[in-house]
């Protein structure tokens, strides 16, 4: 039976992760720890011997830099890197830039949990659409806010039109993205019910390895251990 591999990785720790801040579509740099996590992921993937045909990442600097670190460690910087806004972190609307502990004190733990981990709950919206040249040039309007369901809806066309066809052609794929966009993808791949997705967490720099058969059915799912664990 012909097998093909997909590895998904959440970017290394960002300054916002460290400081407990909602970021969404805002660019924030990696911390020194985040850089170390990217190196550790690369070393772990090198031990597997997987040869990727393509890497896929978001339009966010923290994911792009992590991708480059990983590819450098596995000596595969030469492969194509496909960047897409569809893999961006979910847009947290008016919560963007706010400290999660402060928001929790204002609205309570239950409401914060629904905003962060629920499937259909939409965080408070911005008053107006923001503009960023990287999206304006694509004709993409930045969201006012997104639920995980909305994130999944804009992510799936990239999976169905780009990643899945390459996998079906036997081409191993690497995806480096964000906590929410990867949770949305995992929900789809693992067929997780709406009311159970709040139990899924994707830590920074902890790769997940999917092996598919020739019909793109999941044969095996492995959590790859890195040296920093």
Automatic annotation (TrEMBL):
<feature type="binding site">
    <location>
        <position position="100"/>
    </location>
    <ligand>
        <name>substrate</name>
    </ligand>
</feature>
<dbReference type="InterPro" id="IPR005952">
    <property type="entry name" value="Phosphogly_mut1"/>
</dbReference>
<keyword id="KW-0312">Gluconeogenesis</keyword>
<comment type="similarity">
    <text>Belongs to the phosphoglycerate mutase family. BPG-dependent PGAM subfamily.</text>
</comment>
<dbReference type="InterPro" id="IPR029033">
    <property type="entry name" value="His_PPase_superfam"/>
</dbReference>
<feature type="binding site">
    <location>
        <begin position="23"/>
        <end position="24"/>
    </location>
    <ligand>
        <name>substrate</name>
    </ligand>
</feature>
<keyword id="KW-0324">Glycolysis</keyword>
<keyword id="KW-0413">Isomerase</keyword>
<feature type="active site" description="Tele-phosphohistidine intermediate">
    <location>
        <position position="11"/>
    </location>
</feature>
<dbReference type="Pfam" id="PF00300">
    <property type="entry name" value="His_Phos_1"/>
</dbReference>
<feature type="binding site">
    <location>
        <begin position="89"/>
        <end position="92"/>
    </location>
    <ligand>
        <name>substrate</name>
    </ligand>
</feature>
<dbReference type="InterPro" id="IPR001345">
    <property type="entry name" value="PG/BPGM_mutase_AS"/>
</dbReference>
<protein>
    <recommendedName>
        <fullName>2,3-bisphosphoglycerate-dependent phosphoglycerate mutase</fullName>
        <ecNumber>5.4.2.11</ecNumber>
    </recommendedName>
</protein>
<feature type="binding site">
    <location>
        <begin position="116"/>
        <end position="117"/>
    </location>
    <ligand>
        <name>substrate</name>
    </ligand>
</feature>
<comment type="function">
    <text>Catalyzes the interconversion of 2-phosphoglycerate and 3-phosphoglycerate.</text>
</comment>
<dbReference type="InterPro" id="IPR013078">
    <property type="entry name" value="His_Pase_superF_clade-1"/>
</dbReference>
<comment type="pathway">
    <text>Carbohydrate degradation; glycolysis; pyruvate from D-glyceraldehyde 3-phosphate: step 3/5.</text>
</comment>
<feature type="binding site">
    <location>
        <position position="62"/>
    </location>
    <ligand>
        <name>substrate</name>
    </ligand>
</feature>
<feature type="active site" description="Proton donor/acceptor">
    <location>
        <position position="89"/>
    </location>
</feature>
<feature type="site" description="Transition state stabilizer">
    <location>
        <position position="178"/>
    </location>
</feature>
<dbReference type="GO" id="GO:0016853">
    <property type="term" value="F:isomerase activity"/>
</dbReference>
<feature type="binding site">
    <location>
        <begin position="10"/>
        <end position="17"/>
    </location>
    <ligand>
        <name>substrate</name>
    </ligand>
</feature>
């Amino acid at each position: 039976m012909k097998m093909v591999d997909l590895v998904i990785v959440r970017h290394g720790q960002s300054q916002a992760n460290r400081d407990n801040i909602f970021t969404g579509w805002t660019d924030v740099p990696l911390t020194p720890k985040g850089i170390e996590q990217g190196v550790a992921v690369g070393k772990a993937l090198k031990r597997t011997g997987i040869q990727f045909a393509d890497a896929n990442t978001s339009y966010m600097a923290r994911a792009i830099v992590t991708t480059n670190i990983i590819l450098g460690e596995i000596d595969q910087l030469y492969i194509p890197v496909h960047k897409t806004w569809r893999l961006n972190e979910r847009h947290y609307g008016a919560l963007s830039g706010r400290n999660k502990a402060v928001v929790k004190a204002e609205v309570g733990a239950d409401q914060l949990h629904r905003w962060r981990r629920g499937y259909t709950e939409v965080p408070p919206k911005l008053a107006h659409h923001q503009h960023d040249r990287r999206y304006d040039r694509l004709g993409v309007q930045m969201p006012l806010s997104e639920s995980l369901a909305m994130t999944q809806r804009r992510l799936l066309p990239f999976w169905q039109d780009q990643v899945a066809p390459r996998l079906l052609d036997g081409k191993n794929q690497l995806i480096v993205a964000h906590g929410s966009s990867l949770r949305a993808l995992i929900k789809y791949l693992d067929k997780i019910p709406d009311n159970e997705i709040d139990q899924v967490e994707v830590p920074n720099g902890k790769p997940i390895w999917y092996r598919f058969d020739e019909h793109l059915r999941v044969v095996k799912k492995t959590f790859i251990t890195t040296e920093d664990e």
